[in-house]
Protein backbone atom coordinates (compact mmCIF):
# COMPACT_ATOMS: atom_id res chain seq x y z
CA UNK A 1 0.00 0.00 0.00
CA UNK A 2 1.02 3.65 -0.31
CA UNK A 3 2.46 5.38 2.75
CA UNK A 4 -0.18 6.56 5.21
CA UNK A 5 -0.32 10.17 6.28
CA UNK A 6 1.73 10.77 9.39
CA UNK A 7 4.21 7.99 8.57
CA UNK A 8 7.94 8.53 7.98
CA UNK A 9 7.47 7.36 4.38
CA UNK A 10 4.77 9.99 3.81
CA UNK A 11 7.03 12.64 5.35
CA UNK A 12 9.61 11.60 2.74
CA UNK A 13 6.97 11.95 0.00
CA UNK A 14 6.23 15.46 1.28
CA UNK A 15 9.91 16.42 1.32
CA UNK A 16 10.37 15.10 -2.22
CA UNK A 17 7.26 17.03 -3.29
CA UNK A 18 8.76 20.26 -1.96
CA UNK A 19 12.08 19.62 -3.71
CA UNK A 20 10.36 18.81 -7.00
CA UNK A 21 8.15 21.91 -6.85
CA UNK A 22 11.26 24.07 -6.47
CA UNK A 23 12.06 23.13 -10.10
CA UNK A 24 9.23 25.24 -11.57
CA UNK A 25 10.52 27.56 -14.26
CA UNK A 26 13.63 25.46 -14.94
CA UNK A 27 14.55 23.35 -17.97
CA UNK A 28 13.72 20.26 -15.87
CA UNK A 29 10.18 21.55 -15.43
CA UNK A 30 9.92 22.09 -19.19
CA UNK A 31 11.02 18.48 -19.76
CA UNK A 32 8.50 17.24 -17.19
CA UNK A 33 5.73 19.16 -18.95
CA UNK A 34 6.68 17.52 -22.24
CA UNK A 35 6.83 14.09 -20.58
CA UNK A 36 3.29 14.55 -19.23
CA UNK A 37 1.90 14.44 -22.76
CA UNK A 38 1.20 10.78 -23.55
CA UNK A 39 -0.43 11.42 -26.91
CA UNK A 40 1.15 9.73 -29.89
CA UNK A 41 3.34 10.40 -31.72
CA UNK A 42 4.65 12.92 -29.16
CA UNK A 43 5.21 10.52 -26.26
CA UNK A 44 7.61 8.14 -28.00
CA UNK A 45 9.82 11.01 -29.15
CA UNK A 46 10.89 11.40 -25.51
CA UNK A 47 13.29 8.48 -26.07
CA UNK A 48 14.74 9.50 -29.44
CA UNK A 49 17.74 11.32 -28.01
CA UNK A 50 18.61 8.44 -25.67
CA UNK A 51 18.23 5.94 -28.52
CA UNK A 52 20.08 8.28 -30.90
CA UNK A 53 17.58 7.77 -33.71
CA UNK A 54 14.04 8.78 -34.66
CA UNK A 55 11.06 6.76 -33.49
CA UNK A 56 8.30 7.40 -36.01
CA UNK A 57 5.67 5.52 -37.97
CA UNK A 58 7.63 6.34 -41.13
CA UNK A 59 11.21 5.54 -40.03
CA UNK A 60 10.62 2.71 -37.54
CA UNK A 61 7.03 1.49 -37.92
CA UNK A 62 7.51 -1.80 -36.03
CA UNK A 63 9.25 -0.09 -33.10
CA UNK A 64 6.62 2.65 -33.03
CA UNK A 65 3.80 0.07 -32.97
CA UNK A 66 5.56 -1.97 -30.28
CA UNK A 67 5.98 1.08 -28.05
CA UNK A 68 2.33 1.95 -28.57
CA UNK A 69 1.23 -1.54 -27.57
CA UNK A 70 3.37 -1.80 -24.44
CA UNK A 71 2.24 1.68 -23.41
CA UNK A 72 -1.25 0.24 -23.07
CA UNK A 73 0.01 -2.84 -21.21
CA UNK A 74 2.06 -0.79 -18.74
CA UNK A 75 -0.64 1.79 -18.13
CA UNK A 76 -3.32 -0.82 -17.55
CA UNK A 77 -0.93 -2.73 -15.29
CA UNK A 78 -1.32 -0.01 -12.67
CA UNK A 79 -5.09 0.25 -12.56
CA UNK A 80 -6.02 -2.52 -10.13
CA UNK A 81 -3.85 -0.84 -7.49
CA UNK A 82 -4.89 2.69 -8.50
CA UNK A 83 -8.55 1.78 -8.12
CA UNK A 84 -8.01 -0.18 -4.91
CA UNK A 85 -6.02 2.49 -3.05
CA UNK A 86 -7.54 5.56 -4.72
CA UNK A 87 -4.70 7.67 -3.32
CA UNK A 88 -5.07 11.43 -3.52
CA UNK A 89 -2.59 13.18 -5.79
CA UNK A 90 -0.20 15.80 -4.42
CA UNK A 91 -1.68 18.69 -6.39
CA UNK A 92 -5.09 17.90 -4.87
CA UNK A 93 -3.65 17.37 -1.38
CA UNK A 94 -1.95 20.77 -1.45
CA UNK A 95 -4.60 22.55 -3.57
CA UNK A 96 -1.98 23.33 -6.23
CA UNK A 97 -1.68 22.73 -9.97
CA UNK A 98 0.11 20.34 -12.28
CA UNK A 99 2.23 21.27 -15.26
CA UNK A 100 -0.71 20.48 -17.58
CA UNK A 101 -3.84 22.18 -16.29
CA UNK A 102 -5.93 20.46 -18.98
CA UNK A 103 -5.26 17.07 -17.30
CA UNK A 104 -6.24 18.12 -13.80
CA UNK A 105 -9.98 17.42 -13.96
CA UNK A 106 -9.39 13.79 -14.97
CA UNK A 107 -6.48 13.31 -12.57
CA UNK A 108 -8.47 14.52 -9.56
CA UNK A 109 -10.55 11.34 -9.70
CA UNK A 110 -7.78 8.96 -10.79
CA UNK A 111 -5.76 7.22 -8.10
CA UNK A 112 -2.18 8.33 -7.68
CA UNK A 113 -0.60 5.02 -6.59
CA UNK A 114 1.17 3.64 -8.56
CA UNK A 115 2.13 6.00 -11.38
CA UNK A 116 1.01 4.84 -14.81
CA UNK A 117 3.27 7.32 -16.60
CA UNK A 118 6.22 5.91 -14.67
CA UNK A 119 5.29 2.33 -15.54
CA UNK A 120 5.13 3.31 -19.21
CA UNK A 121 8.44 5.17 -19.17
CA UNK A 122 10.20 2.32 -17.37
CA UNK A 123 8.81 -0.33 -19.75
CA UNK A 124 9.98 1.79 -22.68
CA UNK A 125 13.42 2.17 -21.11
CA UNK A 126 13.72 -1.60 -20.54
CA UNK A 127 12.37 -2.47 -23.98
CA UNK A 128 14.74 -0.08 -25.76
CA UNK A 129 17.68 -1.23 -23.66
CA UNK A 130 16.95 -4.79 -24.73
CA UNK A 131 16.88 -3.66 -28.38
CA UNK A 132 19.88 -1.30 -28.21
CA UNK A 133 22.13 -2.50 -25.37
CA UNK A 134 24.92 -0.18 -26.49
CA UNK A 135 22.67 2.72 -25.36
CA UNK A 136 21.67 1.15 -22.03
CA UNK A 137 22.87 3.93 -19.73
CA UNK A 138 21.15 6.64 -21.75
CA UNK A 139 17.91 4.67 -22.15
CA UNK A 140 17.59 3.64 -18.52
CA UNK A 141 18.38 7.18 -17.38
CA UNK A 142 15.67 8.50 -19.70
CA UNK A 143 13.17 5.91 -18.46
CA UNK A 144 13.89 6.91 -14.89
CA UNK A 145 13.64 10.64 -15.66
CA UNK A 146 10.35 10.08 -17.51
CA UNK A 147 8.83 8.72 -14.31
CA UNK A 148 10.40 11.33 -12.07
CA UNK A 149 8.82 13.98 -14.28
CA UNK A 150 5.55 13.07 -12.60
CA UNK A 151 6.85 14.40 -9.28
CA UNK A 152 8.10 17.57 -10.97
CA UNK A 153 4.64 17.98 -12.54
CA UNK A 154 3.02 17.62 -9.10
CA UNK A 155 0.91 14.71 -10.38
CA UNK A 156 2.48 11.97 -8.24
CA UNK A 157 4.28 11.36 -4.98
CA UNK A 158 7.73 9.77 -4.97
CA UNK A 159 6.32 6.49 -3.63
CA UNK A 160 3.88 6.43 -6.58
CA UNK A 161 6.82 6.78 -8.95
CA UNK A 162 8.87 4.07 -7.26
CA UNK A 163 5.96 1.64 -7.33
CA UNK A 164 5.18 2.60 -10.94
CA UNK A 165 8.71 1.57 -11.85
CA UNK A 166 8.17 -1.77 -10.11
CA UNK A 167 4.93 -2.34 -12.02
CA UNK A 168 6.68 -1.43 -15.28
CA UNK A 169 9.42 -3.97 -14.58
CA UNK A 170 6.80 -6.61 -13.82
CA UNK A 171 4.89 -5.90 -17.03
CA UNK A 172 8.10 -6.12 -19.05
CA UNK A 173 9.02 -9.42 -17.39
CA UNK A 174 5.58 -10.84 -18.09
CA UNK A 175 5.75 -9.81 -21.75
CA UNK A 176 8.89 -11.90 -22.20
CA UNK A 177 6.80 -15.07 -22.29
CA UNK A 178 4.47 -13.72 -25.00
CA UNK A 179 5.39 -15.07 -28.44
CA UNK A 180 3.81 -12.11 -30.27
CA UNK A 181 5.83 -9.70 -28.14
CA UNK A 182 9.06 -11.58 -28.88
CA UNK A 183 8.31 -11.49 -32.63
CA UNK A 184 7.59 -7.76 -32.41
CA UNK A 185 10.85 -7.24 -30.51
CA UNK A 186 12.78 -9.09 -33.19
CA UNK A 187 11.21 -6.99 -35.95
CA UNK A 188 11.87 -3.75 -34.06
CA UNK A 189 15.47 -4.83 -33.43
CA UNK A 190 16.00 -5.27 -37.17
CA UNK A 191 14.70 -1.73 -37.76
CA UNK A 192 17.13 -0.33 -35.21
CA UNK A 193 20.02 -2.25 -36.75
CA UNK A 194 19.25 -0.72 -40.17
CA UNK A 195 19.35 2.88 -38.89
Which secondary structure elements does this structure contain, and how are they paired or packed?
Elements: H1 8-21, H2 27-35, H3 48-51, H4 61-77, H5 79-85, H6 90-93, H7 104-107, H8 116-131, H9 136-152, H10 158-175, H11 179-194
The helix count comes to 11
Reading the helices and strands in chain order gives HHHHHHHHHHH
**Dominant shape:** globular
Quickly give the structural class: mainly alpha
The count of DSSP E runs of length 2 or more, i.e. the number of strands, is 0
Low-pLDDT windows of residues: none
General description of the model:
Helix 2 (27-35) crosses helix 9, helix 4 crosses helix 11 and helix 9 crosses helix 10 (158-175). It is globular, with a radius of gyration of 17 Å. Helices cover 65% and strands 0% of the residues. By secondary structure, it is mainly α. It has eleven helices and no strands. The protein starts with 7 loop residues before the first helix and ends with a helix.
Provide a quick synopsis of the model:
The protein is mostly helical and 195 residues long. It has eleven helices and no strands.
Distinctive features:
195 residues, mainly alpha, 11 helices, globular
